Input
Amino acid sequence: MNKSIRIKKGLDLRLVGGIDSGAPRSVYTPKVLAVVPDDFRGFVAKLEVKEGDSVKAGDPVMRDKSHEEVKLTSPVSGRVSAIVRGARRKIERVVIEADGNNEAITFDVKSASNAEGLRSLLAASGLWACLRQRPYDIIPNPDATLRDIFVTGFDSAPLAPELSAGIDAQHARSGAKALTLLTDGNVYICQRASSAINFDGIDRVVAVDVEGPHPAGNVGVQIANVKPVNKDEIVMTLDVVTLARIGQLLATGRVPYSTTVALTGSEVATPQLIDTIIGADLAPMLEGKLSDTPHKRIISGNVLTGWKVEPDGFLRFPYRHITVIPEGDDVADFLGWASLSPKKMSVNRSFPGHFLFRKRFAPDARILGGKRAMIMSGEYDRVFPMDILPEYLLKAIISRNIEQMEQLGIYEVAPEDFALAEYVDSSKLELQKIVEEGLEYLRKELN
Output
């Protein structure tokens, strides 16, 4: 069974430094890796190891205090070299030195023939932590009743790599078939028609062809246009890379921790693909691959939703994209934010860059403007392809009005759904942070 949807609202940012069909490919085997609990929203970490412990790939490193069966596991065999804590002794990361032996534990997959067994396997292997749910955009409760499951098969974010490239189609099919055990509803696979994996013949797996600009690749947008989430319903979400990992785990008994990372951005000498391990350290990976200009911003992820990381930082979830752009703190433009330079990217018709349809831009990380009160101009609506009034929802979140938040669609959204609105926002507000804090407030109040 196939469906198709077309997203009309949105915006594709034309940036320098993308991956083309002839992009080079390299391999990086990290010696130091990190498991970062902040990558997994809703996970309250409790240590399973201490400094100096030896671990194998797949051994638990942390568990969730609320659901102790949900684990974060080591991506390599080696030694726990550091447990880094922040304010109030919060666990920021567990650092592991790889020993190069590639020892890994093998999970018993025979029990995964039913829903309970599959949930237990995914929780113990660390793959459950890679899943999300709507509402709240957190790791799902392993005991939750799932209405449906949505899998996004492409990433429409700026400079993002093609997710289906390098994916083993048979593993993806096996993963999709297994996920049907977790829900009485459907497993929706949302893909671009040009790069679709064939899921025909699998009962209750529905392929959805998606067209349109970013944020068409956001799973929240796909849910809203296929089957929106209502109050008291839970929908689980994941990407096709995680889907293939589930299939490979079921086939081999081992969790695949390898990943392909797209290194992109205007400050990258040669945009390329890098085969590495999730959680890898960035400094050796990026050595010799960036331009000589100073003041760079390294982002683990894309420019709209990624994590800002230090040069000696680590690859962050979802482990598939690194973007490097100018920081901009050493630039002084004539007229500042009002500069009419054609090198300036803008969605506003007041600037020349808006009319250069074929030009690709190299923006820096500056905000270019000051924060001010929200302007009810409808500018969010032009890039927000969901049946929601974003400005009114944001005001309800800011005022902590739970009733209005529910009526205006809070259960359907995640912070990433507001990333493009944040980019075009003339008020320079941190919309993603507002939504994240609102979802966390709502979850604590209602649970």
In short: The two ends are 37 Å apart (CA to CA). Residues 381-446 form one domain. Residues 136 and 440 are 7 Å apart (CA to CA).
